[in-house]
């Protein structure tokens, strides 16, 4: 029989999701899972293995260890498909996750099997259970990027690039992390990193939209417009490209185009809170703008506003129907209240009681939280609660608000 205390000493030494402290609480947002699942469709094999490992960890946190094992198997298959010469090194994180999952399933023999797999590889580098290498740093960086840990992700990618300069995968990750950390519009330090990453990844349309958003902050509109148009032409169905491009047009003031792209992105991620938040922003802004618009344009706006209002309201209804506390997502809830206020003011309408009723289960009526819409700090605090990335990381831009 394998001593359990031996495993308890060894497992914390493994470099994997269980030892990286990815979340402050032992849970992940459902939005993160939806986003990761959606991204997999557009990723190459090596990136897919990273996402499958993350999904496995999320499933474990949800108490679904069998599902976690299925995702780990997919991660292994992706690694074997892409990395002939690096299969063993690239598998260390997956094997570490296997060991932890089996440990939590109280299957010590299976746990020990994967511990030994890790040990056999690490022994070649004179370390029993962990090694230092750029591949593992890059894997950790991408994982942290997905979970909103941009500062730590940046450090991981920088460390990897010291060993392998100009590596496309690490350069891309570093550029995205720097983009999300860049808070100074006039001195946008991420621009050079994004340009370098694009040179190494010429077909990465997501990077082009990030660069466009950075250039937009610097008022370099012509180049930014070209980048967004090119990205949409070459990746018309890629959800993270659509999201970022929509945000670009929202900031530009082209609400019609922004809404079109947000709605297209919703087709593949129907539960995406980030998208609903921005749809509510557009709904509110259009309600304000209609006051200064003459007919017949005003009629078109009224139809669009009603469409967006219904979409936003249906989403909020689902939040309550699923038993979720709206204060767990205050950014959406507050924006919805603000938009509803604008709707009443502009159209001179009281919201019908029948429409208000779905918002009242779970002790969360509009009246109860009406004061929240006056508190801008509540919006910021709510935005900060989302795990958002990355390759579509969205946490920081929800704070602007946007991804």
UniProtKB/TrEMBL annotation:
InterPro entries: TPR-like_helical_dom_sf, TPR_rpt. PROSITE patterns: TPR (PS50005). TPR repeats lie at residues 239-272. One of its GO terms (biological process) is defense response to virus. Residues 357-403 are annotated as: Disordered. Belongs to the IFIT family. This is Interferon induced protein with tetratricopeptide repeats 3. It comes from Spermophilus dauricus (Daurian ground squirrel).
């Amino acid at each position: 029989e394998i001593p359990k205390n031996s495993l308890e000493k060894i497992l914390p030494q493994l470099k994997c999701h269980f030892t990286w402290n990815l979340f402050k609480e032992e849970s992940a947002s459902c939005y993160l899972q939806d986003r990761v699942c959606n991204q997999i469709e557009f990723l190459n094999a090596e990136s897919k293995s990273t996402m499958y490992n993350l999904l496995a960890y999320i499933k474990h946190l949800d108490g679904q260890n069998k599902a976690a094992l299925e995702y780990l198997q997919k991660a292994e298959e992706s690694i074997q498909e892409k990395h002939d010469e690096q299969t063993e090194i690239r598998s260390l994180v997956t094997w570490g996750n296997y060991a932890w999952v089996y440990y939590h399933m109280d299957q010590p023999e299976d746990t020990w099997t994967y511990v030994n797999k890790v040990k056999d590889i690490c022994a070649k580098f004179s370390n029993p259970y962990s090694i230092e290498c750029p591949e593992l740093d890059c894997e950790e960086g991408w994982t942290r990027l997905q979970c909103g840990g941009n500062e730590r992700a940046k450090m991981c990618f920088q460390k990897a690039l010291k060993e392998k300069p100009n590596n496309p995968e690490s350069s891309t990750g570093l550029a995205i992390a720097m983009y999300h950390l860049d808070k100074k519009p006039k001195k946008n330090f991420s621009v050079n990193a994004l340009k370098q990453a694009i040179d190494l990844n010429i077909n990465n349309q997501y990077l082009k939209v990030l660069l466009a958003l950075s250039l937009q902050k610097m008022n370099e509109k012509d180049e930014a417009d070209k980048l967004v148009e090119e990205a949409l032409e070459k990746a018309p169905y890629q959800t993270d490209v659509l999201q970022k491009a929509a945000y670009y047009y929202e900031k530009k003031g082209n609400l019609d185009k922004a809404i079109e792209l947000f709605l297209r992105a919703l087709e593949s991620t129907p539960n995406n809170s980030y998208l609903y938040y921005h749809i509510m922003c557009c709904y509110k802004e259009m309600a304000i703008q209609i006051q200064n618009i003459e007919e017949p344009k005003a009629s078109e706006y009224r139809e669009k506003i009603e469409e967006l209002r219904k979409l936003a309201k249906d989403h909020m209804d689902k939040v309550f129907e699923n038993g979720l506390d709206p204060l767990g997502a205050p950014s959406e809830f507050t924006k919805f209240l603000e938009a509803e206020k604008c709707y009443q003011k502009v159209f001179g309408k009281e919201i019908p009681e029948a429409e208000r009723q779905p918002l009242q289960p779970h002790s969360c009526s509009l009246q109860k939280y009406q004061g929240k819409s006056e508190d801008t700090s509540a919006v910021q605090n709510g935005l900060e609660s989302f795990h958002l990335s990355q390759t579509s990381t969205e946490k920081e831009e929800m704070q602007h608000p946007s991804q």
